[in-house]
Each structure stands twice: as C-alpha cells, then as structure tokens.
Amino acid sequence: MAPTPPPLVEVRPVANAQNEWVALLLGAPAASGLDGAALQALFGTSDLLAAAAPLDCIVLLDSPAVLTPPTLALLAPNRVLLALRAASLAEDGAVRRLTALQQAGYRILLDGDLPAGMARPPALRTVARDCSSALPAPAPSSLPGLFGPHLARGVDTPARFQACENAGFGWFEGDYPLHQARAEGDDGSSRKRLLTLLALLARDADSCELEHQLKQDPALSYHLLKLVNSAAFSGGLEITSFAQAISRIGRRQLQRWLQLLLYARPHADSPPNLLLPLAALRGALLEALCEREGGDRDAQDLAFMAGVFSLLDRLFYMPMAAIVADLRLPAHVEAALVHRDGVLGRRLQLAACGRPDPALLAAAGIDAAAWWQASLHAHHWAIQVARNV
C-alpha cells in the first residue's frame, strides 16, 4: 500500500516576548482546525516532532471530536498543545472531555470566545486569541488570574504586539517581526561590513583581506566564532581565529554564516532578531527544494542565498531593488528577489507566504510530499541556527 501523502498544513513559528521561538503552530491553510486524518498523517512518524525539537507543537483544532484514541496515541502530551475552538465547548460532553485530557497531561488552549451564556470551566483557563489588526486591540491586563502562557495569533504589527503583551499574552504568532523599527543605536555599520565581506567572498578574495575586514568589527568576530564553535555546527573542533574558521569550515559554509549574520543582534545585550530564523528558514527551504530536483551545488547555494537575502529590505528599511543593485547577483536571483519572477521567484513567494497553497505549489513545480519534507528540514535547521547565534 502506498504511503498516505502528507496533508497541506500551515506551519507558523510562535515566539515569546524575548524574541525566542518557543513553538510551531500547525493549522489548515484556510486557518481552520486540523481533522483526525491530518493529525494521524502528521504525527504518524517521528519526523515532525524530531524536526521541531526542542520546541513544542500547537495544533489548531475545531472540535475535541477529532481526538480519538488512535489519534491521541500519536500526540505526546509533553510536546503537543491542543488549541481548541472555544465554541466547541457547546458540544455534548466537550467540557468533561477536555478537562480529562488536561488531567492526563495535555495542555489545552481555548481559542476564541466562549459560547453565549457559558462560564469559563475552572480547569480550562489558558487561552488563544486571533489578535489580528482587523480586530479591536486587547485591553491591557485582560487576562488576570488565568494560567498561561496565553497565545496571541495573527499579531501583524509591533503596536499590536505591544497591546497583546500588555493584555497578558506571553506567546505571539504573526508577521510583526517583518515590521520592526530600527533598533536604537544600530547605525547599520556592521551590516555594511558584512555586505563588503560577502562581496569579497564572491570574488574569491584571499584570507588576509577577509580577516582584515572582519577585525574591524569585534561584534561580528564574536558572533562568527560563537556560531562556528556551536555544538550544532563545529563537530567538536574548537575554532579560535578567523583563519581557522576559513580553513576548517571552508568558504562555502563561511559565506552562509556571514549571510545569516546579517540578521544577528546588533549588540551582545540586544534581544534576538526574529528576522534571523525567518531568513534561515527561507534559505534552507529553497535550498532543499533545489536539491530535491537535482540542482547542483552552485544552484543550491544561490537558492539558499535568495531565501536569506529576501528579508534584506526589512532589515535595511529600503527597497529591495536598491539593495540588490550593489550586490551583482545572477540575473535570475535578482529577478526572484525584486519581482518574484521565474521558478526561484515563485518558490520564494511560497516560502514568504508560509501557506502551502495548491496553486502556488503547482506554479512552483512542487508536490505536497516534497514541500512537507523540505519544510521539516528547513524548520529544524532554522530552529538550530536561532539557538546558536
């Protein structure tokens, strides 16, 4: 019997107030809940939880009726949170069922408004809310006395993030990282030096030139050595100088770290930049898709670079066309970044929207299985990068 194809699932990162990814939110592309068949397909192997580790998975569900014994057997209580539509409490026996699940170790979030006339069950006090900018802003301290962390979904602006945090939410999902104001004291000089380094690498400059450029910025040196010495990437070899970094990890890997370090925090005491894992996610996703279709090493590198560079306009607060004009990128990469043209551009559009829309998948030449496997790999890699930069 042929394996069941993976369902089309939207995967969205969830961060805490310290700009750290804490979970992945899983839902159907139409923002509805997952059904039992989708849950069994997703969690029927160890791939999903392994890829998300050490983060939790939050599954958005319309009704507790989908939580049959065979499905629950696949959902590890210590790793999976159940976000149930609060309206489903009107179903016969739903309150009793969810209370029993919570007592069995599952973390339950009631998503949305309770049914009219129903009081909140004492045992079910953790909430999730759609807090998109189309809705009224949450009132400050609107969640007193409730267990948390509470999840704010659809947080699309920094102002909405601040309102949700003031209201008592502790976890946040949405596009607000794409609209951050420039950090105080960040004049962009580090990133300008990084772009110069990338240009030197592209023309195969010698190591002395590279080391001279890097030594001008102690923060960049610190971040690079911290990254290449991390348990995830160093292979147990201690690297103490830039020359060692070049000789041990090679120019190809060095170029990748420098691309990602564009998004590193500007100061050691600054909060993490949430653009960093998003850039890593896009780069790894486009690279994995290129590799699956047989692209050679150079094509994979360009796909990775396109994904990472696709957020430079958000980082530099300037049009993408003005940024790429100085980078001398291959024509198809520039077209993908500026206009979303070509196969690479369509895949970048898919990576940017985060939703596996069937029409976009078809236009990008990707089937559901390829998308899911590439997405798992990309999320795992982005999680590891964010924890080590």
Give an account of the 3D structure.
This protein is α/β, with parallel strands linked by helices. The protein folds into 3 domains: 170 residues, EAL domain (TIM Barrel, Alpha-Beta Barrel), CATH 3.20.20.450; 73 residues, no CATH class; 114 residues, no CATH class. The chain is 47% helix and 10% strand. It is built from 17 helices and 8 strands. It has an 8-stranded mixed beta barrel. Strand 1 and strand 2 form a beta hairpin. The radius of gyration is 22 Å and the shape is globular. The chain starts with 9 loop residues before the first strand and ends with a helix. The mean pLDDT is 86.
Give descriptors for this structure.
389 residues, alpha/beta, TIM Barrel, eight-stranded mixed beta barrel
List the helices and strands and how they pair.
Layout: E1 10-16, E2 21-27, H1 36-43, H2 47-52, E3 56-61, H3 69-72, E4 80-85, H4 94-103, E5 107-111, E6 127-130, E7 151-153, H5 158-167, E8 171-172, H6 189-202, H7 207-215, H8 218-228, H9 242-261, H10 275-292, H11 297-309, H12 312-316, H13 320-324, H14 331-339, H15 342-353, H16 358-363, H17 368-388
| Annotated CATH architecture of the largest domain | Alpha-Beta Barrel
If you consult CATH, what is the topology of the largest domain? Answer: TIM Barrel
CATH-assigned homologous superfamily of the largest domain: EAL domain
Distance between the termini: 44 Å
Q: What is the typical, i.e. mean, pLDDT?
A: 86
| Shape estimate | globular
The low-confidence parts are: none
Q: Strand order of the main beta sheet, please?
A: 1-2-3-4-5-6-7-8
